[in-house]
Amino acid sequence: MESCFGARFGAADVVLGAWFALTCFACTSSSYGPLFGDSPGVAGSSATTGGSGGGSPVDASTGNADVSSVDTGATGGRGSDAGGGSDSGGSTGIDAAPGTDAASTSDVGPGKSDGGGGDGRVGPTCGEESQDCCPNARCNAPFTICKSGKCTACGGWGNECCPDFGCRDMGCCSNGVCVANGGNCEMNPSSNLCNNGACRNCGTEGATCCGSQFRTCGQGLACVSSKTADSCVKCGASGQTCCGLSTNKNCNGDLVCNHAGQCQQCGVAGGPCCPNGEPCGNALVCDANKTCQPCGTSTELCCQKGGKSVCNDGFLCASDNHCVRCGGAGDVCCDARTCTTGACVRGGDVETCRDGCGDRGKPCCKVADCLGGQCDGCVFGLDCDLTMGVCAGP
Fold first, then answer.
1. Stretch 361-383: mean pLDDT, rounded?
2. Is the pLDDT of residue 133 over 70?
3. Are residues 202 and 194 in contact, defined by beta-carbon separation less than 8 angstroms?
4. Residue 309: inside a domain, yes or no?
5. Is residue 81 predicted with pLDDT exceeding 50?
6. pLDDT tens digits along 303-335
7. pTM over 0.85
8. 217-223: long-range contacts (C-beta < 8 A, 24 or more apart)?
9. 283 with 273: CB under 8 angstroms?
10. Has residue 373 been placed in a domain?
11. Which range of residues forms the domain containing residue 387?
């Protein structure tokens, strides 16, 4: 029994010694990172990691699944032995940063797909420099202008200012030309220098406009005249003054400069006509002043449909391009000589709907004489039988 107890005690010593050796090894291993290697490593290490300098295990579900599928034996350190690199719980080593997707941090070029990102994003197809202009001759990239259907660079030193009076490299717009940062906005006074996009004595909000030939302001401002002097005011937003020179008025986004010189949504009743596509919305027509007006009913303008002037049912487009009520008793006849009440009878130079006369078997209507004697008080195709005083025909 003593020998048995001694054997058991000797076995326990072996186990305890092995545990102590492993504990000491863990205390002196990679908590400070590898002394020699090709990776700086990360403080801390997993006992199941085969590499010499890897970090703590990271579950692939918290990172990029594509990256975590790569062999993690050499991730974050010099490498791993043949049997290392993972434990039974899953992959180990350093995965991608949690929630990081390579596609989300990369810029997608104009007109290009992200390809590997897989989210279907496509860069802008219009409005960027060298691209086609967007609808309403709009360019979205800073310091670009729409010319001949293309967005081209503007605002360079010594060149014309951009439509919003912007200039590149913190220059200033004066006389319609961009002055370099530090240069003279005006020769008189010579102290009126350009300082980081703003002239010293002119061009800022509330100040007088710059220039002698072309009155301009700083970027995003418009020059507005008054009885005494002009001044620079905010521009471009809905209800604000239109930006730019009088020859090239512009507004922010899809807004359009109306005939009163203010920015407004186009295509709506009372708003400016849209320069591209359908000029106005439903039941609206673009008038001579390029303003959308209601159309189709009594006293309103005639609508345009397929290149023809038309009105709503029960109305006829008259010679003055306005809609008049038609088809009722005493009204003018509708298209194709139709009436909702009575018969369409010509008298003088107009055809009107007459009730109780003019139709087959009905008395002839009393009408004004017509040129050529074609008015006989009956509908088209019938003649007035003078002996009977009724409308008859073949």
1. 86
2. yes
3. no
4. no
5. no
6. 999 889 999 999 999 999 999 999 999 999 999
7. no
8. 217/165, 217/173, 218/165, 218/172, 218/173, 219/162, 219/164, 219/165, 219/166, 219/167, 219/173, 220/164, 220/165, 220/166, 221/165
9. no
10. yes
11. 338-394
Q: List the structure tokens of 49.
A: 């990691």
**Across all residues in the chain, what is the average pLDDT?**
75
Into how many domains does the chain fold? 1
